[in-house]
Amino acid sequence: MNFGSFLALAKDKHTIYNLLDCKLFDTIPRPRFIGQAADDERALMLMSSDGLPPDAYQYRSWALLAHAGSYTLIHHDSGGLSTYVHEYTGVKYWFYVRYRNPFPSASEIAIQYQRVGDLNVMSMEYPRQPPWVKYDHRTQEFIFDSNIYNSEESAIWKMENPKIADIFVIRLAPGMCMAQPSDATHAVYNATECIAVGGHFLSYESLPRLEIARRGDHLSEQAMTNDYHDSIHIILQGMAYLLKTRPAEDALEMHVLEALARMMISRKSYENRLALEDESPELENRRMTTFVALCLQEKLGREHPLSRLLTG
User: Fold this and answer.
1) What angle is formed at CA 186 by the lines to CA 85 and CA 126, rounded to 5 degrees?
2) Which residue among 53, 127, 230, 304 has the highest number of C-beta atoms inside a 10 angstrom radius?
3) Three-state secondary structure along 242-275?
4) What angle separates helix 232-242 from helix 254-265, to the nearest 10 degrees?
């Protein structure tokens, strides 16, 4: 849906709408604290002389326009990217799912992604639907039953089904700005009419979580998000190339370099399922491939197993 259609439909008093990712094409500058953490911005500046396509910039700046009462399904942001949101008007509530296993395998994360399509925020703490969360077929809503929750039956159920995650909530009011890490599983409820601006970004430190999110999206049988950005691979190429400017005393941890190297080596193994269905491959700068491999090899060390794969 485009912006004009959203405005026209906004006159319908019987329907609630939530417009996500309305592209702003960098008309809104990033907050200063985001700019300091955003290594992707420096990577794009380094590669800009090479004639990057416009799509390489679309993920960086967008608006969110929502009616009161609208909400999102449980998801993580496109491609597992990090996100910032600056609230202009209205109040939003972010419900975050923090899994107790911080670094699950790719197959485990794929199973987590498939679960969220069948559950709601009140169920995400447990491996299956708890008895105190009921579904009302008339209103098509999930309802929390406090009587069942406080019952002996539920106490036994909790012992037999230990928590796999914790839920916490963030309230975003006008003037507030929040930063969200890569692969943060969440849902958003708009308590009032809301206007916010935001964007995605990447830092080197976020790459291990980004790798898990991208691999999970590739393996999962259902999409964890309703969008994807075909510029992710070319951004990662730029971040690998940017390593040549990084001083030795500011070295990255090895698991960060390894995550980046694996995404460069096995590009097809990380492509989003939505991208594959639309037959819209991620953007790639083929001329940069050799330079990227050399930069990663230098940081990993020539004897590292991934260094040999980069040249293969």
Assistant:
1) 160
2) 230
3) HHHHCCHHHCCCHHHHHHHHHHHHCHHHHCCHHH
4) 130
Q: Please give the full DSSP string across 121-157, using - where no structure is assigned.
A: GGGTTSSS--TTEEEETTTTEEEE-HHHHTSHHHHHH
pLDDT tens readout for residues 256-300: 999 999 999 988 888 876 665 655 556 676 777 888 888 898 899
**Hey, CA dihedral for 147, 152, 155, 159, is it positive or negative?**
negative
Alpha helices in 183-252 (DSSP H): 207-219, 232-242
8 Å CB contact between 168 and 67: no
**Across-strand partners of 75?**
186
Classify strands 92-99 and 177-180 as parallel, antiparallel or unpaired.
Answer: unpaired
Helix axes 207-219, 106-116, angle to 10 degrees: 70
The two tokens of residue 71 are 């909400």
pLDDT above 90 covers a percentage of the chain that reads 27
For residue range 110-169, what is the model confidence (pLDDT) as tens digits? 666 666 655 667 778 887 888 998 877 776 677 888 899 999 999 999 999 988 888 889
Pairing of β 194-201 and β 92-99: unpaired
Please provide the size of the chain in residues: 312
Which region, left, alpha or beta, applies to residue 117 given φ > 0 means left and ψ of -120 to 50 means alpha?
alpha
**Radius of gyration of the chain from Cα atoms?**
21
